[in-house]
Design brief:
alpha/beta, binds uridine-diphosphate-N-acetylglucosamine, globular, 16% strand, binds nicotinamide-adenine-dinucleotide, disordered N terminus, 13 strands
Length: 335
């Protein structure tokens, strides 16, 4: 629909600005400006690297609670601040063509241990980002998680499968999706939520009890330390390599232009922890000592995503197998 020609030029301009904003803002233009929250973290720093390589401008806000400044080039626009700092977030959002919202307390276990403070970041922080995006209808591509499916056994999980959050982390991620939908429906903010499955790659911090299983295992193996499996090792995950995740994020930015979507970002393949352990023995050509401890509270048993919707909407397909991703990681010795 076009504006009534009886309108004044100013009114016509306003109409175009309002109605075409999301179109104008489709950020696959050469040299767009992207705001990345959590850009000093594992996934965020890889994304920043790729965007800079493609000649885009990148602005980062990160409180460095788990991220590291050295993950990023020294000349990048970097704000060491909390995403709940609304006035700063609004100022930065005004400069951005699109926002990748990745900041979160990413450890399921840490969110169980620190329920209230992690909720402040994981949900209130997300609303802070969406609220700032309202002003200019800035597209927001945000990290949700496969954790929202909880112990749903209808594998591979498609996006419509029941959501049964088992942890504070998962409950907040599901709530982020609900608020993103509100941002889209009520405030015309284009959003795409990506339910990342278990991501692994370089720069994933191995040094905290809250780190992901792959960096912890690789670090222990390198230091000739035993690894620990929580539970019987039959729990399974859909492990996706960081390069694939970055491809998925960029594809989402291209398609984030009008309505709100939520999509799985996964490989569609499932590996148990015992299989992961055996694969690592093969790659390192070493016998690895393994201990077992009781399963973690809130831990999901099985997780594997359905890839169809991401293929349909983003034309996204993961390319790297777990074996090749692990091999690449091990050979680089960067974990
Ligand atoms: P990460 O911990 O490496 O990165 C998160 C970043 O957010 C860190 O740099 C941290 O300092 C920053 N941050 C945390 N709280 C903040 C706050 N209040 N204000 C500003 N910055 C803050 O984790 P990651 O693995 O890179 O995860 C990125 C996103 O992807 C998160 O939203 C996470 O929940 C989600 N996710 C990750 C995985 C995975 O397997 N790694 C899977 C599913 C979803
Ligand atoms: C991970 C992500 C979370 C994401 C979710 C998506 C991290 C830290 N967490 O959670 O952000 O939303 O995937 O599915 O990246 N385990 C061991 N030994 C260890 C460490 C872990 O047996 O030393 C087990 C855990 O109990 C769990 C499995 O390995 O069963 C995976 O754990 P973890 O890597 O922490 O990931 P998730 O909890 O799946």
């Amino acid at each position: 629909m076009y504006p009534n020609t009886l309108l004044s030029q100013t009114e016509i301009n306003l109409w175009y600005n309002y109605n075409n904003r999301s179109l104008k803002r489709i950020p696959h233009l050469n040299m767009a400006t992207y705001l990345i929250t959590g850009g000093a973290g594992f996934i965020g720093s890889h994304l920043a690297e790729r965007l800079l390589k493609d000649n885009h401008e990148v602005i980062i806000i990160d409180n460095l609670s788990t991220g590291k400044r050295e993950n990023l080039p020294s000349n990048i626009k970097f704000y060491q601040e909390d995403i709940c700092h609304q006035s700063l977030v609004r100022t930065l959002m005004r400069k951005a063509d699109a926002c990748f919202h990745l900041a979160a307390v990413a450890s399921v276990q840490k969110c169980q241990d620190q329920w209230l403070t992690s909720h402040q970041t994981n949900l209130t922080g997300t609303i802070s980002i969406l609220n700032a995006a309202k002003e200019n209808h800035t597209p927001v591509i945000y990290a949700s998680s496969s954790a929202v499916y909880g112990d749903n056994t209808q594998l591979p999980l498609n996006e419509l499968a029941d959501k049964i959050p088992l942890s504070a982390y998962a409950a907040d991620k599901l709530a982020c999706e609900l608020h993103a939908n509100v941002a889209s429906q009520a405030f015309n903010v284009p959003t795409i939520g990506l339910r990342f499955f278990n991501v692994y790659g370089t720069r994933q911090d191995p040094n905290s009890p809250y780190s992901g299983v792959i960096p912890i295992f690789l670090k222990n193996i390198t230091n000739n330390q035993p690894i620990t499996i929580f539970g019987d090792g039959q729990q399974s995950r859909d492990f996706i390599f960081i390069d694939d995740v970055i491809d998925g994020l960029l594809a989402a930015a291209k398609h984030c232009n009008c309505q709100s979507h939520v999509l799985n970002l996964c490989t569609g393949k499932q590996s148990t922890l015992i299989e992961l352990y055996q694969m690592l023995e093969k790659i390192t050509q070493n016998k690895i000592e393994c201990r077992f401890k009781p399963a973690r509270q809130g831990d999901i048993l099985h997780s594997c995503g359905n890839t169809k919707k991401a293929k349909q909407i983003l034309n996204f397909e993961a390319k790297v197998s777990l074996y090749h991703g692990l091999k690449q990681l091990y050979n680089l010795h960067q974990f």
